[in-house]
Amino acid sequence: MSRISRRIGAISESATLAVDAKAKALKAAGRPVIGFGAGEPDFPTPDYIVEAAVKAAQDPKNHRYSPAAGLPELREAIATKTMRDSGYALNANQVLVTNGGKQAVYNTFATLLDPGDEVIVPAPYWTTYPEAIQLAGGKAVSIFAGPEQGYKVTVEQLESVLTERTKVLLFVSPSNPTGAVYTPEQVREIGQWAASKGLWVVTDEIYEHLTYGDASFSSIATLVPELEDRVVILNGVAKTYAMTGWRVGWMAGPLDVIKAATNLQSHATSNVSNVSQRAALAAVAGPLDAVNEMKVAFNRRRLAIVESLNAIDGLHCPTPEGAFYAYSDVRGLLGREIRGVVNNTSAELAAFILEHAEVAVVPGEAFGPSGYIRMSYALGDADLEEGVARMAKLLDEAK
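Below the sequence we write its predicted C-alpha cells.
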C-alpha cells in the first residue's frame, strides 16, 4: 500500500518555482547565478498599497475571521475594476477572492469538472493548469501552437481535439509562458466557436495590463456575450501591482459556480488574509500610474532581451506582445556539441546553461513540448544584460 495517494503522487512540483528555488539555493551557496525563472516583477509593491496594509494590520477588525468569499468591499471593487478593464459587468456576489491566482485556478476546475471531463489546454501553457485539472479529476488535452503561428492556436486546431467529453476551453491572452496576445478578431472567433459547441470557457486575464506596441488586451467574456452563463474569469493582483507575495487572486463568473466554489474554499482555507485583502482593495480601486511606470521598464527589457537572444546562432525568439516572458525556440541548438557535451532536449540544455553559465531558465518541457526555453524579463536591467551575455558566450561555442 502506497504511503502517498495516487492523486497527489501524480502531481509534479511547479517547474518554474523549482528553477527559482534552485537558483536561489546556488546564490546562497555563493555562486553568482542570475535567475530568469520566476515570473516576478523586481519592483516593490507601490507605497500606497503597503500603507493600506499597515493601516489594516493596526485595525482590530482585521484580526478576525471574515467571509470566505472575500471582504464585501473588495468583491465590489473587483466587479468595478472588471468593468473598467475588461468591459464586463459583474455583481459583487459573482466574485470569489482566493489565496492567489493558483487557488482560483484550482477552485474553478474543481467546481466545473467531473471525473473524465476534458479541458482543451492550448500549449505552450502555464505549468500549473494541467496539474490543477488533474487534481480536479479532469483530463487536460493540449494542442500545440509553435512560433511559426505566433504561439496562438486556431479554431481548426481546437476542433481537431474536440470530443464528446470536452467540457471546458482554457483561454489565456496575454500568455504565460509565450507573451502571445490574440487579436480581438481571433478572440471573438475562438469564443464563438466555444459557444457554438456548448463549452465552458475559463479565461485567465492576470496579464491584462501588460501589453506592448500595437497589441491590446481583449476579454473573451466581453467580445462573446453568448458565453455569459458559461465563462469564468481568473485574475489577481500579483503581476500588475508587483504583489506576488501578498497572495490575492479571484475568480468571477455565474452565481451558481461562485457559490459552489465558495463552499469549497470555506472548507479548504476560509478567508484570504484580511491585511492582504485590504492591500488588494487599495490596488484595484486605485490608479494605474505605478503599473504604467513598470510597463515602461518591461517594454525596454522586452526589446533588449529579444534582440540579444536572436543574435545567438541556433536560437529564435519571437517578439512577445504581452506579459513579461521571452519564449525561445532552441531546437537549432539541440544535438550540437558544446564543451564536449551534446544536449538533446531543452531540459538538458537548461541544466547545462545553469551549470556552465550560471543562468537559470525554464525548459519547454514545463510548458509542453521540448525544444524551447522560457526567460522572464521581470528582473533588473543589469542582471538581464549580464545573464543573456553569459548565455550567448556559452551557446556561441555550439558546433
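The first strand starts at residue 34 and ends at 35.
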